[in-house]
Amino acid sequence: xxxxxxxxxxxxxxxxxxxxxxxxxxxxxxxxxxxxxxxxxxxxxxxxxxxxxxxxxxxxxxxxxxxxxxxxxxxxxxxxxxxxxxxxxxxxxxxxxxxxxxxxxxxxxxxxxxxxxxxxxxxxxxxxxxxxxxxxxxxxxxxxxxxxxxxxxxxxxxxxxxxxxxxxxxxxxxxxxxxxxxxxxxxxxxxxxxxxxxxxxxxxxxxxxxxxxxxxxxxxxxxxxxxxxxxxxxxxxxxxxxxxxxxxxxxxxxxxxxxxxxxxxxxxxxxxxxxxxxxxxxxxxxxxxxxxxxxxxxxxxxxxxxxxxxxxxxxxxxxxxxxxxxxxxxxxxxxxxxxxxxxxxxxxxxxxxxxxxxxxxxxxxxxxxxxxxxxxxxxxxxxxxxxxxxxxxxxxxxxxxxxxxxxxxxxxxxxxxxxxxxxxxxxxxxxxxxxxxxxxxxxxxxxxxxxxxxxxxxxxxxxxxxxxxxxxxxxxxxxxxxxxxxxxxxxxxxxxxxxxxxxxxxxxxxxxxxxxxxxxxxxxxxxxxxxxxxxxxxxxxxxxxxxxxxxxxxxxxxxxxxxxxxxxxxxxxxxxxxxxxxxxxxxxxxxxxxxxxxxxxxxxxxxxxxxxxxxxxxxxxxxxxxxxxxxxxxxxxxxxxxxxxxxxxxxxxxxx
Length: 656
Prior knowledge:
- The chain contains 25 helices and 15 strands.
- With 656 residues, the protein is an alpha/beta fold.
- Strands 6-8-9-10-7-11 form a six-stranded mixed sheet.
- The relative contact order is 0.07.
């Protein structure tokens, strides 16, 4: 898409800069091409002139009859007597003094007397001085430079706002305008997945194309739609696709563009934005990251110290649904912080509908991979279905990063095409961090890490609802000294039994350390953090406690920001239940490890020898997993072809 703002055209800045360079060139040319080569000059009175003449310091004279002034040139060997230390510090070729003359007749009479006495033997020349181009330039040039620099400074202060004028147009809108009819516009075919969200916005596109279809029935199109979703899910891309499909002018800006240090600027920019939009209606206004300006009033982080933001929000509310009409102007906005937006902004008549963009599921990830793999040279062994299954929880931006990283890895190894192993390495790199094969570890540390990771693998193999194991490694990645990789099932709700099994499997590393090394280490810090948060969530939020059943102390409206919604006694009960829950699963994990102690040791020894083991290696030791899930059945279809499957990782960080 092309940007049609005049301020963004490179020609404007080029013209101003060119004028400045030309003026500077003329100024330097004047200095270099002056008709004299005087290096040392000054002014003298008529009395001093007579004194210098009598002492024989004067070389020659140039008298300007129409200016009542003259130039007195001093002999080089006498300059030190006239200019003092300046003559010593500054070399010169023709030192000169300017002298004012009262009467030319008296001057000529004095010169004649000096010539008769022999004090002056030089030449006398009469001239008429005219206002030459260089004289005019030297007088005007400083003012021109000041004006040019002022223009440049004001343009910089204005930041390209509005249609020029710099600081005088600081209240103009900074929106970038994408005109209709461009061949490179984004359309719905460029947006993979998000079928439900696209269905919602297609109605907006249809109204912009054929408004009579709705107005004949008395219907009104929603004035605004708010795109809500996690980062990287394609909110901005979907808004561009709406503008591309409707083929109407598209105003794009960020919420932070309204915020300025000058009082009243934000509200002024809102008014100017809607004025421009009405002139080009039907059109679309897209405000990205609207939470920068739409935060709930009275809840600003500055505790009332930022009235400018509230004034901007008030003006935005007025423009969206005030006394004025905005026919044909549709507002799209995007945010991942809808919980902090002002309620007046979300009411019907402003943002009538909220369109949720969630993380893509399996089928949607296939579509997203299809879009980002268009321009990549793929090997025949790349299976898009397998890549989609190996990236659960990835957003569209994450998948784009995987494709790009795989291409970079292939180029690093001088390959002609991107192969499957490059994509697997890319997922490993993005999720787990950079592999550190050169990290130095003692044999005892390596054995402790192997026992820890084998503990995770053993428990996840024998627990019914634990995520299916894919790969275990003790090769350090990022801050993790080892990792167990899983393929979680994509489910919408989670039962208490599933959460308990996941908690038990997470505690398997610490349990294995205590059982088989006789001591515990800091390697389980990340595991303990996750388990503690999960246990508190089960008791305080999900109402899964024995002593506090069916109670939820979570508020989505953030009304408990400054106080707990329960008493100190209840807090003690929550702490007790959390401790009991974690201790119960910890003892359960130790019991399962003792039952399969021999297999656990074999698994740990295999890890020490090979550093990376796959699910089939675990199956050879423990036999087929008794709790086969749909994820494992899907994965089993690709076991013959798959060399490694880096999926969701369980970090075990060691803190200093």
